[in-house]
Structures
1.
Amino acid sequence: MARRKKIYEGKAKILYEGPEPGTVVQYFKDDATAFNAQKRDVIEGKGVLNNRLSEFFMTGLNQIGVPTHFIRRLNMREQLVRACEIIPLEIIVRNYAAGSLATRLGLEEGMQLPRPIVEYCYKDDKLGDPLVSEEHIAAFGWASQQDMDDIVSLALRVNDFLSGVMLAVGIRLVDFKIEVGRVYDGDFMRLIVADEISPDSCRLWDIESGQKLDKDVFRRDLGSLTDAYSEVARRLGVLPNAAPVAKPRLIN
Ligand code: TMP
């Protein structure tokens, strides 16, 4: 069997050339890193969970007309995705104060924000993914004003979708990060949601207990990361042999 070509290896995933032009195989590793890879570990089963969870969220987004790179899951650790040109930005949407926003502005973690806030970080590990403004993005040509309008609209649609899906299983979507890529159809360029959507890239808190069900469990040494991710998967009905939580909760 011919060895496939590795296109890129990141901290949590590997990209291989796909079987057809314009496709890529995305492989989810078990590696967990935080604080720009200063903290690292291998957490058995994380890749399998994130592959399934990202499939679940991306499929739902495709179904409501939010375009994503996701085509289909191939196996436990791999999915087939559309090749795209990644815009070098991490797009963060926040509903409640937490993490770097809480630190930067001295806000209490868990405070509801007056409205969803969209932030951008420039994707550069050497610089630690610094926060940037639309001014930087336009001046350095990372994205045009039209792209930025489309990116904000995509990010807010993802926020509405994910918030609703999580609320229905008793989980608060505190914040999340997406990446966006360009695809070309003839003369036209479109932006699609790429990378992954998983508890690695979201903050998810149990609505009743406040328990963290995301990568902060690893960042802050709060217990078993796979237990937390499995709980999210179980509630969403994503794990085989696990029933979803039947009772939607709409309380605060
Ligand atoms: P932050 O509060 O640390 O800036 O994180 C905001 C959101 O972005 C949170 O849901 C975690 C996610 N995130 C990533 O997906 N990758 C990263 O490298 C960082 C720093 C955060």
Note: The longest helix spans residues 145-167.
2.
Amino acid sequence: MSMIDHTHDQAARSFVASANGHADFPIQNLPLGIFAPQGGTARAGIAIGEMILDLDAVLAAGLLDGAAEEMAAAAEGGALNEALALGAGPRRALRHALFALLSEGSPEAARVPHMLHAAADCTLLLPARIGDYSDFYAGIQHATNVGALFRPDTPLLPNYKHVPIGYHGRASSVVPSGTDFRRPHGQRKPATETAPSFGPSRNLDYELELGIWIGPGNALGEPIPIAQAADHVAGFCLLNDWSARDIQGWEYQPLGPFLAKSFCTTVSPWIITPEAMAPFRAPQPPRPEGDPRPMDHLWDEADQAGGALDLDLEAWLETPGLAAKGLPAHRLTRGTALALYWTPAQLVAHHASGGCNLQPGDLLGTGTISTAEPEGWGSLLEITRGGRQPVTLPSGEVRRFLEDGDTVVLGARARREGFAGIGFGACRGGVTG
Ligand code: MN
């Protein structure tokens, strides 16, 4: 587990003025990403306040040495896969070097300003070439809410509390925040219709999830022991697993979701490192009385003691009607990552337990995160009870599911007394017709 050190000092300040008190990217965060400045090519960067530090330029200027230099060199080329593969040591060394470089009173401060770009003028890209993307179902309240729509008496299937449920998703259609997508077409067969038909999804939904970026990974056939699983997590992001519920309901049996999920998945572009999240780790909440203890290959005392993420999560809806009336975005969800039934390490260990090789830059989704309270439900499927109880917005608009022109924005904030809070930055996507 990551350690607390001087880079987590609440009093630390940067000479990049916008970083100080920044809700997402103060100097205590320093997330990694890939960006393109206006008219420039894709390169590695670090978010600092309202600016992005060009990591390639820092490297070229000779401002790094040792493992930090090795990490920055591996980050060249417009994708972070090789850097993520280096694991925690070089990642922490780079964090420490950049913390020193960007700190108030840094002796190199005068050399840095021309390496900074206003984030508003840059394009944020995917941080890695995603070889594989898998999505779990670790939000037990979400699984319960969805299961109850079909099986009110036994919402959870018998396997749920024993095995982290997941499926292999589609990597090619993972897009960075800010990318709009077209409403998917597919086969639909609602109970009210006698025959299936092909056409645009009528029940388009969002799913509020966290993404887990894989670091070093494992060789084919060599599982990752649970005690080492956290070493293979390179960081976290927000993930919106857009879902066409009507297509899903018709196609998913017996093999699971296919076209209902593969048309688009949106991630926030910054990789929030385990080092940045160190102050915000928490014990995995104890399982309710009577739930099975995780099997040995998923049980680690240190992971149980500090492997969960204490992270506030939100989902916001922007609509044409709200915009036309000058009204703010409508908050759909306010929840917490502590509602996950499995830790990130358990998801990694489980994924590799059969011998599947995880590779640097692979992406895992946690599954939709919903809390016990309705305000924390992480999809419209739950909020509107399958579309039966529509939401009326302050604009007067009514939503069962998403309409063309709607945009969903996910956000995440970590806070703890005595530490500078950090955020993940936005995970935004809009649906077009
Ligand atoms: Mn999902």
Note: The pocket of manganese (II) ion is lined by residues 135, 207, 209, 241, 365, 367-368 (CB under 6 Å).
3.
Amino acid sequence: MSKNMARYENETFSLDGNEVEFQPGETILQAATRAGHFIPHLCSQPGFHPHGSCRLCIVKINGRPGSSCTLKAAAGQEVESDIEELKHHRRTVLRLLFIEGNHFCPSCEKSGNCLLQATAYQLEMRGPRFEEFYPNRMVDASHPDILLDFNRCILCGLCVQASRDIDGKNIFAIGGHGMNTHLVINSETGKLGDTDMALTDKAAQVCPVGVILPKRVGFAVPIGQRVFDIKPLAEMVGEQPS
Ligand code: SF4
Ligand code: FES
């Protein structure tokens, strides 16, 4: 083993008082996840470049806030995550995500398997607190095998990356600004049915909420047996489904 390897293997930072080892180049979220520590996050998944958009993964590093999915781990950092100040911040971010779209969990095919819903349960978010926007968003059923419900999009960008970088199809993009930011389909008609998207594409499997759904299989798993019925999110560190 080289000298450098030995040095890196021993490098650690502190996360809520626990020593966490990290490898060179790892982010705080990656190192924490590998060590089995839960930091809430929505727009980051293994194998994807961090998008830094959801702000759920904010931690305090030496007293200053920063997103753990984008900031690299460094030796001696004092990182705080499981503190009331950040839980309050994360619940506020979640509430804003819920009111900004149309999330009717009981009628959503992704209920029980949805990372947004599971995170809200995990962080004990109760009630929206803010006025609902009830935006007017469409459903695109033009594809033979895939349904798109834009009402539930949290603009995490994962489908954009998956389609562009893994599937090589570049079917999704995020367009607009501010309140009008929205998911766009790259086809002449703007419809998914006019793309070459397939159910086997990574982009069809990566959505953490209920936007990109396979047709004809909704509600196939009974309540009680869905992913987050079986184990709470915080106990699934490193094994979260998309
Ligand atoms: Fe993220 Fe899903 Fe919206 Fe794509 S459709 S940006 S994966 S929430
Ligand atoms: Fe870090 Fe979304 S997971 S900002």
Note: Residues 3 and 200 are 44 Å apart (CA to CA).
4.
Amino acid sequence: MAEAKGHVLVTGGAGYIGSHTCKALAAAGYGPVVLDSMVHGHPWAVQWGPLVEGDVRDAQLLDSVFALFRPVAVLHFAALTSVGESVADPGPYYDNNLGGALALLEAMRRAGCPAVVFSSTAAVYGDPAVPGAPMDENHPLAPVNPYGRAKLAVERMLADYGAAYGLRHMSLRYFNAAGADPEGELGEEHDPETHLVPLAIGAALGTRGPLRVFGQDYPTPDGTCVRDYVHVADLARAHVLALGHLARGGPSGALNLGTGRGNSVREVLAAVERASGRPVPCEPAPRRAGDPGALVAAAGRARAVLGWSPDLTDLDSIVSTAWRWHAARA
Ligand code: NAD
Ligand code: UDP
């Protein structure tokens, strides 16, 4: 039953979004095979299929994985993910995120694997042309950091491989992934952690210091940054839909994944306080370099193309799942 639709290779499947997607894949009848270097992955997150420990830049390893499992498609999550780190030290971002994607696409060509879903990001857009306005997929692509530039380069590589070799592909541009598996089997754990929701929960639990609120003077209703927080289980479901779309011969392209609703840092902190019943100790801090004031998705194309829209649209529901995960492990 678990493999009725065939194996899917999930690079980075021991990480946050990849592991939630493996659970959704298994529920939909695919057999996920995780390839993860474990540089930021967790053994406990690999629960729905085998783990091949290794690097996506390892061509020989990729050939053996394709030969052994004959995956019907690839979901490519494996990447370094810290924007700030990519500014300070861009080399590993181009090597791992761009070089890794190139090695993967070449192995797919050799193996004749026809389709890939790529973890792209809102960072391919850069600063919104109209501050605060939702950005659709036609927004100019002007990333402002090496992380976003490497992701955009992969999107363009996918288009070239599609045109020349017939590779079918979907780039999913996530906005801010948040929350945890509603059944409590998975959650978010990055080391070092840079994301707002887990840091705020850690502050509420007392396992981390006070939350530093980066910037109080943005042109937003309460002066703090606004982001579009989308639940990780909704992201996972979008990948399953994208696989079906490509398998049916649907057109390749790029889609935003967000809720279309923005919440400020202060609204997130209030939601953590409601979920936890505890105060979130916080302190004002300067703006973080490279942070646009507001990033909100226009997500209508994902609905039109995939029939996807998020199930969990309100911040309290999203944050509650994260709170339950962290509180159970504290
Ligand atoms: P994560 O760090 O939890 O997962 C990434 C996984 O990739 C890790 O398990 C890591 O060990 C693995 N990995 C890294 N380099 C590898 C390599 N060369 N070979 C094999 N495995 C490798 O990150 P995440 O938050 O789950 O993000 C998943 C993807 O989604 C990334 O591509 C990221 O850029 C993208 N993304 C994330 C967000 C977000 O809000 N978390 C937003 C937009 C895009
Ligand atoms: N943020 C913050 N304090 C923190 C971490 C994040 O104020 O300790 C803010 C950050 O400036 C951004 C929002 O929270 O506006 C979301 O940041 P995160 O790092 O979670 O995701 P990003 O938007 O950078 O992808």
Note: The chain has a mean pLDDT of 96.
